[in-house]
Amino acid sequence: MLFNKIVGMFSNDLAVDLGTANTLVYVKGKGIVCNEPSVVVVRKDDKKTVAVGVDAKKMLGKTPSNIVAIRPMKDGVIADFDATGEMLKYFIKKVHNRKSFLSPRVIIGVPSGITQVEQRAVKDAAQASGAREVYLIEEPMAAALGVNLPVGEPSGNMIVDIGGGTTDIAVISLDGIVYSKAVRVGGDKMDESIIAFIKRKYNLLIGDRTAEQIKIETGSACVVDPDNTRTMEIKGRDLISGIPKTIVITETEIRDALHEPVTVILDTIKVTLENTPPELAADIVDRGIVLAGGGALLRGLDILIREETGLPVIVPDDPLTAVARGVGKMLDELELLKKIAIT
Q: Which domains does the chain have, with CATH numbers?
C-alpha cells in the first residue's frame, strides 16, 4: 500500500477518453491537458507515423498515395490496433513531455457495449504505449460522474452520452448501471447521412471534414427558430461533370438529412425508459435526462427529446468533455474506481 502511494507520487497518472472522433487526456492535478482528434497518419511502406491528432486531421482526404490517414477507432472500439497504440503513445509522451521515470496508471473510458475481446485490445494498446496499470470504465458512468450526477445515491439518474461512434444510454443508481443500451450511431453516422443526402440531392461529393462543418454550423434536430433558417455555402466535386462546384444548403435540408440517426437515438432512449424499474423511472421524471458527449451540442436535440418523452432534458456545460472529467475524477477516488471498473 505504502509502495503504491510512493509510486503514485512520482508517476503522472492519466485518464483517457478514447473516443472515435476525439481523444481527451486528463492528468491528475492539472485537468484536461490534451483534446485532439483521433487520427493517425502513417507511411504505407515502412509504417512510420507521420502525424497524430490535430496535425493528422488536417491531412484527412488530402494525402498522397504513399501516406494514409487512419481513424484507429471505429464505433467506439479499436479498428486498427497498431495505430491506436501509436496514438496512445503520442498522447502519453505529449502529456509527460519529460520522461517520467515511472510508467503511469491509466484509466480509460470505453463504450458500455464493449466485448471481452475489445476490452483486451484497449488494455493491450495502453500497456504497449507504456502504462503501468490499466483500468476501464464504462463511458455512461464516467459521463455521469463528469456532470456531477449523484451516482452513489439510491435514486435513478439517466445519462445519454452521444459520442462520435456510439450513443451510450444508461440508468445509474448506487454506483452501478441498472440498465444500459448502446447503439453504434453518433456524430460519424450524422456526417455520413449528410454526405449521402448531398450526393443524392445535388450529385455533389463532399468529404468528412466538410460534412462535420455542415453539422456544426447548420445541423439541427428540430425547428428551433422558424424565422431564422441558417444557410451555408459548401464546396465539393460535381459527380456528373467531375468539376469542383459550390452550392448553398439550408438548415431544413440538413435537418432532413439527420432525421434517421436522430430517430435511432430517440428510439434507444425510449427503449431504455421502457426497461427502467418503476421506482427509478419515478426519479427520472423528477430529475430528467442528462445529455453528454459532442452530439449533445446538436441544436434542438434537447427540445426534441423533451417533446417526445415529456421529461425534462438537461444539457450541462461543456458536454464534450464530460467523459474525460468523469474518468479524471477516478484518479483521486481509487476505492470507487475499484467498485465501478470493468474487470
A: 2-141+323-340 (3.30.420.40), 150-185+260-317 (3.30.420.40), 187-254 (3.90.640.10)
